[in-house]
């Protein structure tokens, strides 16, 4: 059993593995047609929270992701949130689909949700107009309820998709995230598309503060920065990860295995990985280089007792000459171009 730490703020991730879409477009740990497990699953989430002594942690950010948390009864979500003791001014985010019922959104807000992340998939047909209409109505409803911290997760997959993003000029959305539906390297079309999107977004005064994320000033994701800064966090539910005292824990991926360990009052993880030495250093580089600040060489030296510029001299020279990396004061960071070619740098470092 993990020992709770007093007086240290951590983040909490809650994984909801259910979805209404038959095709798992995002390749997430989620399941279609498994609604019969919903009640049992949430009963076990409550049990896992007790096993992990969640009530003894100072939680200042909660992220409810999936899957699709909004495809299930909102009472399941609200019962979880109402059972928690959170720090004042905590950031509480839930992912929702663009067709989420407004009654569910009201229930989420009533129990403390103050940030919404809406998934936006690309369509090359008439569905797009319907989708955007729903999203605009949803944003207006959320704003009228006094919540303004909204993110759009936008997935791109084909050329000239930028024409479909003109709706962003019609509404004030403080946070945007862009992802490819294809894993791994970007193909030529995706690189070109992202470059166009990047220029479009910059004209709207967004800050490109992480590889996939843009925001208006003051709307950076508090929860995501816990991952990027290697701060401690706990994940509950199927496949969720936790990072506590230098150890990365990964939960069971299957319902039955997860339920079995919970019933034994065990933390339901199948893998523990101690991040220390070079493994911790490489993880730090990958996470920090993804942010707009990049690697602070003084902070890096203090943390690992390694001269970053000396150890990676050849790599830095190569990627600076390719205009993928730049030096700013004591920091090395990706250029705008480099933000979307980061895999090349990471492979070189690893």
Q: Which tags fit this structure?
A:
350 residues, alpha/beta, TIM Barrel, Arc Repressor Mutant, subunit A, 2 domains, 9-stranded mixed beta sheet, 3-stranded antiparallel beta sheet, 13 helices, 25% strand
Can you characterise this structure?
The model has no long low-confidence stretch (mean pLDDT 89). Helix 1 (38-51) crosses helix 7 (255-263). The protein has helices at 38-51, 74-82, 102-110, 127-144, 188-202, 222-228, 255-263, 277-289, 297-304, 308-311, 313-321, 336-339, 342-349; strands at 9-16, 18-19, 31-32, 58-66, 86-96, 115-120, 150-156, 175-180, 207-210, 213-215, 233-236, 241-244, 247-251, 269-274, 295-296, 325-328, 331-334. The chain has 2 domains: 9-228, Aldolase class I (TIM Barrel, Alpha-Beta Barrel), CATH 3.20.20.70; 277-349, Arc Repressor Mutant, subunit A (Orthogonal Bundle). It is α/β, with parallel strands linked by helices and 350 residues long. 36% of the residues lie in helices and 25% in strands. The strands form 4 sheets. It has a 9-stranded mixed β-sheet with strand order 9-10-8-7-6-5-4-1-11, sandwiched between helices. It has a 3-stranded antiparallel β-sheet with strand order 12-13-14, with no helix packed on it. A 3-stranded antiparallel β-sheet has the order 15-17-16. The chain has 13 helices and 17 strands.
């Amino acid at each position: 059993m993990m020992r709770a730490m007093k007086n240290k703020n951590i983040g909490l991730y809650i994984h909801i593995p259910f979805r209404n879409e038959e095709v798992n477009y995002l390749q997430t740990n989620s399941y279609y047609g498994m609604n019969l497990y919903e009640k049992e699953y949430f009963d076990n989430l409550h049990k896992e929270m007790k096993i992990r002594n969640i009530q003894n942690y100072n939680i200042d950010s909660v992220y409810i992701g999936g899957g699709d948390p909004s495809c299930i009864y909102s009472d399941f979500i609200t019962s979880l949130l109402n059972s928690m003791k959170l720090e004042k001014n905590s950031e509480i985010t839930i992912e929702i689909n663009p067709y989420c019922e407004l009654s569910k959104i009201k229930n989420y807000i009533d129990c403390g949700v103050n940030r919404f992340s809406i998934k936006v998939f690309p369509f090359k047909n008439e569905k797009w107009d319907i989708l955007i209409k729903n999203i605009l109505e949803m944003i207006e409803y959320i704003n009228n309820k006094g919540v303004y911290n909204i993110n759009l997760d936008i997935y791109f997959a084909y050329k000239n998709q930028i024409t479909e993003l003109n709706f962003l000029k019609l509404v004030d959305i403080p946070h945007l995230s862009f992802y490819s539906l294809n894993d791994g390297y970007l193909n030529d079309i995706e690189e070109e598309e992202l470059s166009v999107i990047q220029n479009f977004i910059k004209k709207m005064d967004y800050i490109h503060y992480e590889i996939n994320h843009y925001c208006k000033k003051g709307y950076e994701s508090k929860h995501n920065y816990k991952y990027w800064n290697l701060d401690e966090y706990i994940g509950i539910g199927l496949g969720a990860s936790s990072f506590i005292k230098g150890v990365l824990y990964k939960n069971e991926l299957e319902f039955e295995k997860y339920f079995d360990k919970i019933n034994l009052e065990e933390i339901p993880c199948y893998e523990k990985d101690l991040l220390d030495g070079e493994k911790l250093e490489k993880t730090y580089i990958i996470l920090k280089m993804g942010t707009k600040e990049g690697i602070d060489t003084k902070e890096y030296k203090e943390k690992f007792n390694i001269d970053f510029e000396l150890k990676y001299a050849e790599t830095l020279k190569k990627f600076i000459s390719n205009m993928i990396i730049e030096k700013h004061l004591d920091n090395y960071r990706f250029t705008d171009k480099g933000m979307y070619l980061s895999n090349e740098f990471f492979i070189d470092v690893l």
